Each structure stands twice: as C-alpha cells, then as structure tokens.
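We were asked to recover a plausible sequence for a given structure. The inputs and outputs are reproduced exactly as logged, with field labels preserved.

PROBLEM: sequence recovery
POSITIONS: 276
GIVEN STRUCTURE:
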C-alpha cells in the first residue's frame, strides 16, 4: 500500500506542476510537425529528410561511442546539409509558405462575386470545353483562386472581358494569334489571353502528355489555381489542381469538379448550363 501511495503522490505532484502553457506549447509543436510531414509527404524532400534523420541518429550514436572523428564528419555534414536543404528545396518551402498565407485564419471573406456569377462562369467554361473537345481544339484555361497570379497575367494580352463560351472558343481557334497560350480568369472575368505558364519539373509525369498538360501541372505546383485543359490531339478534357491531374472528363463531371473546387459555400446549384 505504501508503494501505491508513493506512486499516487508522485503522479499528483507531477500533474500539479503542469501548466496550461505547457500543454499549449506541446500542441503547437505537434501541429507544426504534423503540417510539415503533410507538406513533404510523397515529395522529393521526404527522402532527403529521412537521410538527415539517419545522419542525426548515427551522429548521436558515434558521440555516445566516443568515435570523435566519425562524429565530427557527421556533424559537419549535417550542418552543410541543412544549408543545402534550403537551397535545393526552395520551391517546396515557397509552396508551404504560400499554403500558410492562404490559410482561412489570415483571409477575409470576399463577397465581390456572387454565387450566380460563379455558376454562370462555370457554365460558360464547361460549354466551351465541350465544344472544343468535340472539335479537337486545344485549350488551357487558368482560374485564379486565392494565390495571386498577376505575374502570369502580365505575360499575356490583357482583355478584362466578361466570360462567355463564344469568346473562349474564338481565343483558342487555331488561327487566332492568342491560341497557343493560356487564358486567365480572375474574379469571374477573363483577365488575359496568350499567357505563358511554367512547365512542371516533375519527372514522373506521363510521357504521352503534351506541353499544355505539363504547363497546367507546373502552374498548379506553384499556386492553388484550377486549370481546365482540352487536348488538341485527342479532344480529351482534363482538370489540374494542387499538382494533380484528372483526365478523360465529360462535361458533367467537369462541372461537378469545378463547383466542388471553386465554391467556398457548402452547396452551389449549378443550373442553367448546357452539357456539351
């Protein structure tokens, strides 16, 4: 009984010394590590981080075993490696900071665009994609979400026009001077055409995908934009968002995906459009 009482007394004393700030501190650190693991999961950085952890563990073991030369080399490698990590994985770090900046905690609600405007824009884009798909007219339609992409808009010809299926089809008509680039849609306005997008450096992208798909992937890897692609060779419709590509879409599925991706409300009724 004495032993149990001693243990209980020790536990109670330990609990009494725990402050709410300690708990908050631990929760914040746990949350940060959780987010960091989410950012590097299935990226190039994941394998490198595993390598650094191995070096750190071996370094501590060599210190414990008093292998001074090995420990010195490992410590130096670890220090230099941290600097290399910042240089080599600048795109991933930029993406992580942009994701933090897009957090709802730091964003103010934007009421400039009504749900009706969004529905109308989606319907016009889907209608145009359907017609261009049947006629095998290549298209690349970038829709800005929360990450600003004015630098991309500046590479093209500013139009600042109302979105319509006819306008989109005229822009991407093969003999149009702007058909080779992308159009950028911002705040339910067609802001620019003939824009240049960064190509993806992902070596795992299928070899059968052309420049349009690679440009779409590159754009979604550096921003949260949503991109609709129509293949000139096959007429297939695809959608790229958050570095992922969904292919072989029909107009109905495309509309549903766009509504889900673009709406910030729980539900948007997508009525009034023509399924092509």
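RECOVERED SEQUENCE:
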């Amino acid at each position: 009984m004495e032993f149990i009482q001693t243990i209980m007394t020790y536990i109670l004393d330990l609990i009494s010394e725990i402050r709410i700030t300690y708990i908050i501190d631990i929760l914040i650190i746990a949350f940060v590590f959780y987010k960091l693991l989410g950012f590097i999961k299935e990226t190039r950085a994941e394998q490198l981080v595993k390598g650094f952890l191995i070096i750190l563990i071996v370094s501590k073991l060599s210190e414990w075993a008093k292998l001074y030369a090995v420990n010195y080399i490992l410590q130096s490698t670890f220090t230099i490696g941290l600097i290399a990590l910042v240089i080599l994985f600048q795109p991933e770090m930029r993406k992580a900071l942009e994701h933090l900046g897009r957090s709802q905690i730091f964003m103010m609600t934007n009421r400039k665009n009504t749900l009706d405007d969004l529905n109308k824009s989606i319907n016009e884009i889907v209608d145009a994609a359907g017609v261009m798909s049947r006629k095998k007219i290549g298209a690349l339609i970038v829709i800005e979400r929360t990450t600003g992409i004015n630098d991309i808009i500046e590479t093209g010809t500013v139009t600042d026009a109302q979105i319509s299926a006819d306008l989109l089809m005229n822009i991407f008509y093969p003999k149009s001077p702007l058909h080779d680039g992308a159009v950028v849609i911002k705040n339910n306005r067609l802001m620019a055409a003939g824009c240049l997008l960064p190509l993806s450096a992902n070596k795992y992208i299928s070899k059968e995908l052309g420049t349009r798909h690679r440009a779409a992937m590159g754009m979604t890897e550096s921003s949260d934009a949503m991109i609709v692609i129509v293949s000139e060779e096959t007429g297939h419709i695809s959608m790229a968002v958050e570095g992922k590509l969904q292919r072989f879409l029909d107009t109905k599925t495309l509309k549903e995906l766009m509504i889900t991706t673009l709406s910030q409300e729980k539900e948007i009724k997508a009525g009034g459009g023509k399924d092509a």
